Amino acid sequence: MTQLDSIFTSDATTVISDSVAIEETIPQTPVQVLRLLPKDTTSVELPQYYREGQFVGDTLYYQEVDAGDYGVSGTPLAHMAVHDDLITLLLLGCLLFFCFTLSHFWDFFTRQTEALFYSRKSEQAEGTGIEFQIMLGLLAVSCLVCSILYYLYAMIFVSETYILSSEYLLLAIIFAVFVGYHALRFLAYHLVNITFFGSRLDKKFLTSILFLSDVVGILLLPGVFLLSYSEFSAFSMIIYAGFVVFLVKILSFYKSYDIFFKRNAYFLQIILYFCTLEIIPLVMLISGLSAIVDILKVN
Questions:
Q1: Is 20 helix (H, G, I), strand (E, B) or coil?
Q2: Other Cβ atoms closer than 10 A to 104
Q3: What b/e readout covers 158-169, taking b as 16+ CB neighbours within 10 angstroms?
Q4: Three-state DSSP state, 252
Q5: 21: enclosing H helix or E strand
Q6: How far apart are CA 170 and CA 79, in angstroms?
Q7: Which listed residue, of 54, 106, 116, 292, carries a Cα 20 to 30 Å from 23's Cα?
Q8: pTM for the full predicted model
C-alpha cells in the first residue's frame, strides 16, 4: 500500500509522491530530509545548528547519535570549616587571645578558680580594673566561639543556603544574639541582686558569673577545633557542648547558693532564683537561635 506525504514507512523501501524513493538505514538529518522533497514543497529556513558543516563527509561524523547523560549525579559536599578561611582566622585569633590572657593573668585566673570552691577566698579574687576588662574581652571571645559553634551546627544540620547576601551575615547575627543574651542576663542579675541582697554580694556574684562565662568559651574552643579540622563527629560535639554547659550551670547554682542562700537555706527561693535567671534565659536563647535560623534558611 502506497503512503502519500510520508518519508518513513514500515517497509524497507517505499514509493512516495513525485517518485521519491528512500531507504530506512540510519536516521536522517533535517537537511537530508528536506533534500528528498520537491523544491516547491517547502521554503523553510534552517537555523545555523541544523545546517551541515565541514565534517559531514568525514568518516567519523555520526549525526543524531544519542550519547546519553554525561557523568553521574552526586551529593553536594557539606560545609567544612577546614576550607573556610574566615572561620580559620577567627578560631586562630580566639586561640591566641586565650593563650595571651592565660599566660599574662594566670594568677588572677587561679584566684578566681579557687574562689569558686572556697568562699573565704572570694574577697581575694576581686581583681583590678584591667583584670575586669580582660574578663570582658574574654566574654566577647567566648561569645564568638559559641557563635562559630552554632554556625557550624546550622550549616550541618539545618541548611547550607540562606536568604542572606553572604553566609557570614548569619554568623554575625548569631554573634549579636549571644552578646545580647549575656548583656540582658547580667542586667537581670544586677537588678535582682542589688534589690534583694545589696551591692557587695552583687559584685561578688557577678564576678563569679563573668568568670564562668569565660570558662565556657575556653572549654568549647578545643571541641570546635576538633569538629572543624578532624573527624570528630558533630553528635559527639553536641554531647561535649551539653556537658560543658551543664557543668557551668551547676557551678552557677552552687555560687548563687553559697553567696546568697547559704545562711538562710531557703530551698524554694534558690530554685526560683536559678530557674528565673539561668534556665529560662538559656531556653529563650536556644529557641531564639533556632527560630532565626529557620526563618533565614532557603526552603
A1: strand
A2: 10
A3: ebeebeeeebee
A4: helix
A5: strand 20-23
A6: 14
A7: 54
A8: 0.71
Q: What is the dihedral of CA 222, 245, 129, 124, to 10 degrees?
A: -110
> CA–CA separation, 239 vs 139, rounded Å?
22
Select the highest-mean-pLDDT range: 67-71, 173-177, 231-235: 173-177
Question: Quick one: cell of 269?
Answer: 527561693
For 174-218, how does the pLDDT look when each residue is reduced to its tens digit (9 = 90+)?
Answer: 999 999 999 999 999 999 999 888 888 888 889 889 999 999 999
**Contact in structure between 245 and 216 (CB atoms under 8 Å):** yes
- Position of cell 527560630? 291
In a 13 Å sphere around the CA of 56, the CA atoms on its Cβ side amount to 10
Q: Of all helices (H) and strands (E), which one includes residue 227?
A: helix 199-229
Contact status, residue 236 vs residue 160, Cβ threshold 8 Å: no
Residues facing 94 on adjacent strands: none
SS3 of 108-161: the string is: HHHHHHHHHHCHHHCCCCCCCHHHHHHHHHHHHHHHHHHHHHHHHHHHHHHCCC
Q: Which residue has the cell 546550622?
A: 154
- What cell numbers appear for 200 in the block? 557587695
Compute the residue count for the chain. 299
